[in-house]
Every structure is written in structure tokens, then in C-alpha cells.
Amino acid sequence: MAELKERVQALIENSINPAVAGHGGYIELIDVKDNTVYIQMSGGCQGCGAADVTLKAGIERMIKEEIPEVTEILDVTDHASGSNPYYSPSKG
Amino acid sequence: MLRLLLLVPTTTYRTEDFVQAAARLDVDLAVASERPNVFGERLPDNLLTLDFNDPEKAACEVAALARLNPFSAVVPVDDRTTVVGAAIANALGLPSNPVAAVSTTRNKHQMRLALGKAGVPSPPYFLFTLADDPARAARTVPYPCVLKPTILAASRGVIRADSEGEFVAAFRRIEAILKTADVVALGSGSDEILVEGFIPGNEVALEGLLVKGALRVLALFDKPDPLDGPFFEETIYVTPSRLPGETQTAVADLTAWAARALGLREGPLHAELRVNEAGPWVIEIAARSIGGLCSRTLRFGTGLTLEELILRHALGIEIESLERERRPAGVMMIPIPRGGILEEVRGQEAAKAVPGIEEITITIHQGQEVVPLPEGSRYLGFIFARRETPEEVEAVLREAHGRLEFVITPKSG
Description:
The structure holds 2 protein chains of 2 kinds.
Chain A: H1 2-20, E1 25-33, E2 36-43, H2 51-66, E3 72-75
Parallel strand pairs in A: 2-3
Antiparallel strand pairs in A: 1-2
Chain B: E1 3-7, H1 15-25, E2 28-33, E3 47-49, H2 55-68, E4 73-76, H3 82-92, H4 99-105, H5 108-117, E5 125-129, H6 134-138, E6 145-149, E7 159-161, H7 164-178, H8 181-184, E8 192-197, E9 202-211, E10 214-222, E11 236-239, H9 245-262, E12 267-276, E13 279-286, E14 299-300, E15 304-305, H10 306-315, E16 329-333, E17 340-346, H11 348-352, E18 357-362, E19 369-370, E20 381-386, H12 390-402, E21 405-409
Parallel strand pairs in B: 1-2, 1-4, 2-3
Antiparallel strand pairs in B: 5-8, 6-7, 6-8, 9-10, 9-12, 11-16, 12-13, 14-15, 16-20, 17-19, 17-21, 18-20
Helix pairs in contact in B: 1-10, 2-3, 3-4
């Protein structure tokens, strides 16, 4: 499991964080347990209106493609506390 | 595996609920937004960028992509993507509303014309543009009346006027809203003001699903707070409705009639109606589901969310039941007490402790600006409740709201 965690950590550091940095965001790996990855979003990602899209259609897909053993990615972020989200929702 | 394309504006409230619903369905999810996602270049088949204001171009781009990797369904998540959603679905040969029908719902004047032509009970209405002289226009309309932009949603820019003086003031105030950059960017219709005769009565919201042209009512919400103006800030929604059964039937029948008149045939429908001694009146119909986070009041069958139900319908997956759970439920869109900078919301734990309160979500972040209606375009937050009766739902929503304290400081500069 330690090796799996290291591979996820490397992917986040090398591929994911450089991308989200463009929106002032940062992804932290909290833990890997039973093939489930726990992450936390901060900066522009925390509370961002597009965070779920970035997580489900971006981060999750990249991690599962690169590391097929991973079965699930869970976001443990307190999005309500985000103070500088990149996108904020509006009624349109 | 079924492949789903969600059309998700970067600033919609509906992202989380639709994306989570898609995840539960285990589909191959692609998401299109109007701005590039940070992973868009790495995952071009699943994170698309489309110009939502150019439906034809967007439809061509998606059709090209679909030739290599076909989509099973295309689902717009809110008002801003309904037209482009219909254009893409039609280009792909997927079940959808006609583009013209959806376009009609996106302009309140066009909607009034279509409903009036079909004889659907509607208030008298008049169209003006910003080029018109408001003082002259004020002399040509009945009072009380309601002025509204033709292309904005969720009560933004909607103002009642009881006199010529109030009309001119309202016209000028809406003009300022229509000249803001975000509204000008909407293009066609952004210089229009529709004036409707004010319809007194109780307001209700109908949530429905159109299946091959037939309306299935999913929920009917009462709005117990009077919406008499001068602004129309929506607060509490409670379902099931406490209206008599025959009135509820009349509301459903009128909504179905209006949907037919507009040419809507497939997918979610959200209708706002007023009910008075003359019967129900259609205020608005949209080819989308309920806005904000309000759908969280709804569960169907064995716990299906509204978004799962919409996605299942679009993907052609069996839906066990369209029956809403029996337990009454409600939501309060938290009223904005004043404009300024939101510093803190106190009392959230006490509010959550009110029996029946399920969730309180504050959607404006600490340090962000809160702007009341008619200018405001954001919700302060939502309170959700479930109880044994609609009366209890309404009562606990009010009690929880009373326990919240909003610390809002004046905006500097």
C-alpha cells in the first residue's frame, strides 16, 4: 500500500498539481486506504463551482488510468470554507 | 458503457448534484463548459470547451467528436445550456425538445407570444426596449404591473410598479442591470424589458418530466411567503402542496397545455404559476429542472435524486418509480438581508439542531459580496427540512432561519 500511495503522490505532484496551479489550486494527498484515495483541495479549488467536474472527469480519470488499482477517489475538502474559489456560482 | 455529455456552465449551482448523480450511474462521463478545464488538453474526449452562445457551432463540434466516440445522452444542467443542449441532441439524433421550443422558453416575451397564441391564460403584456422613453411607456400600461428583463432568471431584475413614477424608476433600475457586462454578454434580448399585468394570488412551482410529450408531475411546491413585490425574492418551497386536489389538477393540466403550446416534448420542466379565484395562471416555464440547490428536497422511489431521474430518462435507463417520497419536504432560499461583504454566518449549529432540519449550505463564501434583489444574481444559501406535515416543514425552516445571524459589513469604496 505504501508503494501505491507513493505512485499516487507522484502523479499528483507531477501531473495534477501543475495543472490546477493554473487556477490557483492545490491538491493534497491525505491517504490511501484499501485502494481508495483521499484527497483535499485548497486554494482556487476549495469551494470552486467546477471542483466536482475537475475531480470526477479530470483527477479521478487520470488517477484511474495511470494507476488502475485505485478504485475510488474521495474528496474530504471543506468546500464551504473556501475563501478564494476560482469559479463562484450565480443564477445566470 | 453508456456515455453521457453534461453541459455545465462554470458558474452553475447544479454541478455537484448532476456530477454526483452521473457517478452513481457508472457512465462514461464527459463534461462540456464554456471555459477550458485545467485538464481539458490532457483529456479532450471528456473535458470539452464549447461556446454555449453558439449552439450550431457547438453541435457541429460535438457531432464530430461523437463520430469517433458516440454519446448516449446530452443533458443541459440549467437555463444557460438548454438551447445548446437541444441543438446538440438534435444533431446527434437523440431524444430532445425542438431547438425552437427551448429558445422560446429562454425569452419571456417569446414565451408570452407563444402562450397567448395558444390561448393559455396569461397576463396582459407589453414589450419595450432600452431605446424607448420610459415616461411615455409608463402611460401605456395597466397598473399594478411587473417589469422584467426578457432573458434573466430567478427574479433578477423583476420589479413591480403601482404607478407611472414607480414604472419609470423600475425601468431605469432594470436598464442599469441590463447594461452590466455579464448581461450584455448574453446577447440577443439583453436590451428588452417585458411589462406584464400583475397577477395576484398564491404562487406554486411545478417540477415535471416530459416523456414523449406527456407531462409527468414530479412535485408541486407551495411558496408560502407572499410574492407581491416590489421585488420577488423567493424563499420557502414546500412539497406536497396544501392546495385542494382539484386545484392541483388544474395546475398540472395548465402546465401540460402550456408545454404543448411551447412545443416542449422531452426532459425536465420547471413551471411557475399563480393561483387565484380565476384559476391558475402560467408565469413562466423552463425546459430544465429546479434551480439552485433546491432539488435536494426531492427523492423518488427508493431514494433516487432528481438528477439521477433526469439522467436515467435521458440515457434510457429504467426508472423504478417517478413517485416522490411521501414525507413532506422543503427548502428555504435564505433571503439576503442587506448588501455588503459577508463576514460570517453565526448560529449554524443551533439552526441545524432544529428537529427536521437536514442541511444548511451557505453558498456565498466568507469575504464575498452579497447583493440583494433585484440586482443580485447569487443565493446566500439554502436550508433543507423534512417533517411529518407541510406545515411543520415550513415552521422548522422559519425557526432554523431565525437562529442564523448574518454578519455583513458595508462594501468599501
